[in-house]
Structures are given as C-alpha cells and as structure tokens.
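[Meeting: bench + compute handoff]

Bench side (C.D.) handed over the final construct sequence. Compute side (W.E.) agreed to return the predicted structure before the next meeting so the bench team could plan truncations. Sequence as handed over:
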Amino acid sequence: MRRAARGFSTLELLFAVTIIGTLMYVFLQQVDYYRERAEKVAMEQLARDIGSALRIRVAELILASRWDEIGRLESANPVDALELQIGNYAGAGGRAAEASVEEGHWYFDRETRELVYFPRLASNFLAGPGQRPRVAWHVVVLREAPRPGATARPSWARLELARPYRWFEGG
C-alpha cells in the first residue's frame, strides 16, 4: 500500500522562509562589510602606488640633477605632476568645491595642498560629528642638512598622510 505524497504544511513553510530570510540578512550584512573593507584596501593601494610613482619621479630628477623640481613637488598636485590616470579622480579645486565631490572619488584641494579620498561605503569610518568622511595625503619634500654657507637643497619627497584616520575600529 502506497502512502500519498504530502507537501509542506503552512507552519513548515513559514519556518523555512524565516530561516532563509535570516541567513540572507546575515549574508548581506557580511557582503557590505567586505565591500567596505575592499574599498579601504583599494584606496590604500592607490595611495601606495602614487607614493611609488613619486619616488620614481624624484629618482629621475636626482639623476638629472634637477633639484629645484623636487622642491616644487611639495606644492604640486601629485596627480598632475606625475601625469597619473585615475578613473575616479574628480579634479582639483578649493575647499568650497569639495562639497560637490561624490563619494568614492579622489580630489586635490588646492588650498591645503592635499590629495583627498572620500569613501563611498563609510559605515565603519570614524569621523567627527557632522564631518564628512575623508582621508588626505600630502607631498613632503625632505631636505639634506645644509653645509655651512649653503642652503638646504631638496633631496627626496614622499607621500604621507596629512592626519591619521580610523576606518574600522581595529585598524
């Protein structure tokens, strides 16, 4: 004697949908977390790449004995000075224009001489109350110790953080 096939009861179906919904919610929360982590890593990698390009440019200038050009890098926009192509670069301008820069874009602030990144996903970015999340770098030119009677000439340049930032509590 065969038993008749039986489907899910309403209670079983409701239970299964609840479990699947809960799992999907947890999964989506994790996806957002890892997308934000990936954005942070991509931002930091591009900053390292710009720093490397800056060091290469300085080495070229040293080999050509063009010391004065090294000094000018300190006030220059590194994107322009290094002729970089950055897909999400919004250009350069003053502090007032900064408000119009979209999240997920780079911007050079001509007033502070900072290269700024505005995070797109910033739920784990620790900014001050009412402050827009931003990470800023600037070019620092190092000068060798002057000899008596001589001026210190630029000897190296590097890209460094303008101020510390906290994106994700644990770093």
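W.E. noted at the follow-up: Residues 10-63 form the longest helix (54 residues). C.D. will use this when planning the next construct.
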